[in-house]
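Issue 218. Parser rejects a valid record. Input:
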Amino acid sequence: MADTGPKKAMNPLMREWKSLLRVLREASPFESFEHVILLTLSVLIIVITFVATLTLVRDVWDLVWTNQINPNDPAEFQSVFGNIFTVIIALEFKSSLRLSFFDRKEVVRGRTIMLIALLAVARKFIILDLQKTAPLELLALSGASLALGVIYWLIREQDSHIMMRKAMSESVGAND
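Output the parser choked on:
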C-alpha cells in the first residue's frame, strides 16, 4: 500500500547532512577550506555551549536544592544571569556561523559581531560588582556600549538600504 498522504517530513539531522554535502560538493577548494574551518568552530561552540548550559543548570539546581535563592542577594543572581548571557552569546555565535555556512554569506557578518560584542558588554554590566568597580572602568564600559550600539545601528541601517535597493532593482527587472 503506497503512501498517498503528504510527503513525510525529513529528519532534521538528515536534512542538515544533505545540505552540508550539497554545499561541499558545489564549493571551490578555498570555499571547502572555509567550510571545514566553520564546521570545526561550530563543533567547538556546540561543546562550549553544552558545557556552559550544564554548568548553569547545576548552579541553579544547587541554589534551589540548598534553598539559597534570595532576592536580596544580588551576587547569586548576577552569577546566574551572567551564565545565562554566556549561553546566549555562544548560541548567537553558533547561529551566525550556521548562516555563513549554509546561506553562503561572508564568513561572519559585521552586524553579528557587533551584536555579540554588545551582549558581552551587557553580560559584563550584569556581573559587575558596583561596590568594587572603579568609576573609570564604568565610564569605559559605558563608552564601549555606546560605541558598539552606534556601530550596530549604522550597520543595520546600511544593510536596510542595501536590501531596499536590491528589492527595487529586482522589482524593476521583473517589470521589464
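Fixed in the parser; the record now loads. The chain is about 80% helix and 0% strand.
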